[in-house]
Predict the structure.
Amino acid sequence: MALLQLLLFAMLAACGFSEEQTEGITIAYKVLEVYPQSRRVLITCDAPEASQPITYSLLASRGILVAKKVVHDSVPASFNINITIKSSPDLLTYSCQATSNSGTYGPSSRLQMYQELWAKPVSQLQADFVLRHGDSGPTVELSCLASSGSPPITYRLVGNGGRVLAQQRPLHGKPANFSLPLSQTTGWFQCEAENDVGVDSSARIPLPRAEARAKLVTTLAGELPLTPTCILAGSLVSIAVIASRMLSSTGL
Ligand SMILES: *[C@@H]1O[C@H](CO)[C@@H](O)[C@H](O)[C@H]1NC(C)=O
Ligand SMILES: *[C@@H]1O[C@H](CO)[C@@H](O)[C@H](O)[C@H]1NC(C)=O
């Protein structure tokens, strides 16, 4: 796994600088070195229209000044910085600013570096579900969460035949929550989680067959005692247990 990540970093680094420009100033970066707990990163700022000498400032998120450099020729300013893995990815936002006799340039667009620094494939996707009695009939409520994965994960609810029924992109570390009316689906469903560097699927969860469902609907209309519902809910729970066992035995 560590090897795979290193390979990824190497590939991304080999792709060269990613560059963005606003208001006459560009910001770009390159990962120079990967250490177990930190990354050495080269950030370059370039304001090609500014007259020399140019004073470049590298700003972190919320406008905090990280470093300043005065450049006397037409080369971009380079900042060599160490980033520890402990920092929260969303705090690692940088921008450049430049001042010279010809004026002020920037701030540049904000650079977010988490992808190359923290890229991690999706792994150990868990799908948990409960049966609820909604207004429009019985509903399966499904919660999907991968134990790791960065950049952010898009979760999809996939139904019979691979059809995507819904998708969500929750905040980092939060589960996606789907609600699936039993009347609108047949066969099975599953969760799928994907980010820029990988994809993972939960085990398929079979839905109860039509006759069991018809009984359930009648039950929920209040014409029968609640027992069949409990049996159905019970069988769904046991399916969940089996599904999660299957998951943990195939998990990475
Ligand atoms: C960055 O971190 C590495 C390893 O932690 C260290 O060897 C290197 O000297 C540091 N560089 C700077 C510029 O602080
Ligand atoms: C799903 O539910 C959990 C727990 O209630 C919550 O923390 C999470 O933010 C929800 N996800 C979405 C995408 O709303």
Summary: The two ends are 10 Å apart (CA to CA). The chain has four helices and 17 strands. The chain has two domains: 2-118, 123-223.
